[in-house]
Amino acid sequence: MRQCDALALRLNDRVTRNTGFGPDDLRALAGPRSFERGRGYLDAVTAMEVGDGWITATVHGTTAYAVELSLGGPDGLGGECDCPYGVEGNFCKHLVALGLTVLAREDTLPQQRDRARTRTQQLDVWLAGLSKDELLDLVREQITENLQVRRRLELRAASARGDLTEVRTRIHELLDISPFAQYGYVEYTDARAYGEQAAQAVSALTALTSTGRAADAVSLSREAIRLLGEVQDGTDDSDGHLHNVGSALAEAHLDACRAARPDPTETARWLVGQVLNDLDDLTGLDPLDYAEVLGEQGMVTVRQLAVEAWHGNRTGWAEKYLMERLARAGDDVDTVVAVHAAALAPDGSTHLIIARELDAAGRRDESLRWAERGIREASGPDAPGIALVDYLCDRYTLAARPSDAVVLRRDALAAHRSLTAYQQLRTVAQAAGCWQAERERALALLRADAQQWQQSWRGGPALIDALLDDGDIATAWQAAAETGAHNRQWLALADQARTSRPSDALDVYLRLAEPLTKQTGNTVYEQLASLLLSIRDCHRRLGTEADFMSYLTALRAAHKRKRNLMRLIDQHGL
């Protein structure tokens, strides 16, 4: 028996057993086709390594692919593979093969992880026992065989001896996209490899700081951040490899500044310039992280420059972000309000942000005024926004102003004629003791809307939903007969009216069932079976069970080849 067949057989009765996943999880992620294909690659998995939360291996297919399973993260089981299908973000057959190989092993995943740790410890012990000459021979052997290792060590050596010319040259090479770019652009499939190479620049900068050359690390990290920004538009960074490098470079710059203590004013100017120009937040630089480095003098410069930039462009995203960030750090609510007030959105959403800021600061009256202003000034087809209406209505309720809440919800229903708006009006009007009058006004509005737009609703007129929600079945049925209704609404009407008017409900069920008999699929069969149960119930109430049996017999004969439908009918006892 082939190895893959033997492993596959052992999986049949395998349970999850402390791995955190099982075959069903792999099938759900990969889909049936990739899962079955993965079973054929069980004997192609080599060099498997188990760590804390990850498992790596090489899976040999068209070529050798690097595969990594991730365990226990926020998204649960996941993985990456550098095969063409895997780099598109799919859970491929190679990942399935690795997962099944892990499950097929006799020992549990914790046991496999412990063995890997043991091997690492044994390697450390062996390395510690080597002499200097033996270690040098080992390193020379590695740099001869592995060009990447050689380049990393050359860069570290240049950093250690302070050869800034060499370090700068190597950083430029590491951040150059040319070797990875086709037609001047780094595609998604090559972005990870570029990110791994670019990350080596961070190690060089860290080495400079740790060897007493922090001032040089400051200038070179700035240069590296600039170079990375220049290649950003030429790289597909869908997976965030470039942003990870940018964040690491920013951290290296901050560490170097802490050690070198550069001129605070000049550093403040550079930081503000970076924040204002880094519109995609490539590095995540934040002047507040540099407060200790900048001191009071530098932070004053940061604030001055931020205010100048904002006055020059009050609607600019970066200018607004920086001003708001600094204002929040200083608990300056008035500045936060001023920043948002300079660019008010037409739907009232910015008014709501300001109202909430003032509310959180305990300035309730001002908060209420801004929310009311948002309602007055809102314009556009979707204005005012529902969130603003909900907020102001809550504030009116807290302020014991029920009549104002009713007016607000009444206007909201006029603007958004939906069941939700009707329910919200009903809630506040009942609290205000005026629901009867408001209901008549609201239903008249919805009735006119249903008659005017009879051919245009997608889910049926809101009038039918409102009457159903009120429990006014008779009026809802009459309205549906006059204006028409969506099938969803007719089904709800029939369900609620079945006991009092079974004949009318039966007509509805039969009409809804007819088109389903011409369709296929398990979802359709479930819907049809449910309707058949309702049809049977109506016939029982009418005393016409024989008619139902005739209907069902004819249906079975016409659709006997739909085996899943026949099975469902039998399961429901029809």
Quick structural summary:
This protein is mostly helical. The chain contains 28 helices and 4 strands.
Enumerate how many helices there are, as a single number.
28
How would you characterize the largest beta sheet?
4 strands, antiparallel
Low-confidence stretches: 1-17
Structure classification: mainly alpha
Q: What is the mean pLDDT?
A: 88
**Overall outline:** flat
Percent helix among the residues? 55-70%
**Percent strand:** 5-15%
The whole-angstrom Rg is 34 Å
* Cα end-to-end separation: 49 Å
Please tally the β strands and state the result.
Answer: 4
- Biggest sheet, strands in spatial order? 1-2-3-4
Secondary-structure topology with pairs:
Blueprint: H1 3-11, H2 23-39, E1 45-51, E2 54-60, E3 64-73, E4 76-81, H3 93-104, H4 109-128, H5 132-145, H6 147-161, H7 164-174, H8 188-198, H9 200-210, H10 214-231, H11 241-260, H12 264-277, H13 291-312, H14 317-329, H15 333-341, H16 349-360, H17 364-377, H18 386-398, H19 402-415, H20 419-432, H21 435-452, H22 462-470, H23 473-483, H24 487-497, H25 502-516, H26 522-542, H27 545-558, H28 563-571
Antiparallel strand pairs: 1-2, 2-3, 3-4
